[in-house]
Amino acid sequence: MDVTPQIDLAKYRNIVVLTGAGISAGSGLQTYRGPDGVWEKHKVEEYGHAKTLRTNPQKTWELFGGMRIPVNAAKPNPAHYTLSKVESSLSSDQNFLLITQNVDSLHQKAGSKNVIEIHGNLNTTKCSNENCELEPFFDTQPHTDSVPRCPKCDSVLRPDIVLFGEPLPSLASWQVTRWLRSVDLFLAIGTSGLVYPASNYVRSAKYVGARTVLINLEEMSPPNPSFEDEYIGKAEEVLPKLFILNT
Ligand code: OAD
């Protein structure tokens, strides 16, 4: 797909980008929905919910612990690098926030700085007992064979990600809400737009008058009228050609 640069970044002061699994597809990672998606083989009701963690935590580890292996082998692709370049090219009176639903750390590996991981991070493990004092810690072990236990309270340990049925981390939610009050360019990249609350961010952005742009392999279904512009194609091919960077 041939895209002439159409987003002149110099026109915007407060840029907010929302990314989803599609931006990491070019790095060889599975998306969640669609024919080869994660939820095809592992039913979301069975593996993706907070209640599974309570009733059968081995299943939670089977899916998300197992995901640590491909995620840690993956490398950022041109879409991740373009966003990092956009951020570093901005002038001192411009602000940039990258909100990601992804738990794969690829934005940070590409050099992005101001990243909010609203669904947590796959390589962090924490205690499932909210009253326990164990600090969340970096952990790349998949734990697919046996459920790890907390060294302090013996509760089940869990990946530090947001499961269905759980709220977003409150600091992350608060920060996103604050940014969406003054955004003037909002981009959503590689997301089906089906998971709340991220699916609503474009509406907030539109409400405050931001230019709203979707970059995705396919159109949203059902269509979301809050998006003004759509670029349909692979993020790793579209993004490197999409921006006029500050010189
Ligand atoms: P989805 O799997 O729902 O959607 C991925 C989107 O990316 C789809 O619309 C694809 O068409 C598109 N896509 C695929 N390849 C692409 C490419 N190369 N370039 C651009 N777009 C591409 O993923 P998310 O919207 O991220 O949450 O899903 C949101 C949340 O639902 C996830 O964070 C996860 C999931 O269940 C948790 O597990 C907590």
Mind explaining what this structure looks like?
The protein is α/β, with parallel strands linked by helices. 30% of the residues lie in helices and 20% in strands. It is built from 9 helices and 11 strands. The chain has helices spanning 38-41, 44-47, 50-55, 57-73, 78-89, 106-110, 170-180, 201-207, 235-242; strands spanning 7-8, 14-19, 95-100, 115-117, 120-127, 137-138, 157-161, 185-189, 211-216, 229-232, 243-244. The strands form 3 sheets. It has a 6-stranded parallel β-sheet, sandwiched between helices. It is globular, with a radius of gyration of 18 Å. It starts with 6 loop residues before the first strand and ends with a strand. The model has no long low-confidence stretch (mean pLDDT 95).
Summary, kept brief:
By secondary structure, this protein is α/β, with parallel strands linked by helices. It has helices at 38-41, 44-47, 50-55, 57-73, 78-89, 106-110, 170-180, 201-207, 235-242; strands spanning 7-8, 14-19, 95-100, 115-117, 120-127, 137-138, 157-161, 185-189, 211-216, 229-232, 243-244.
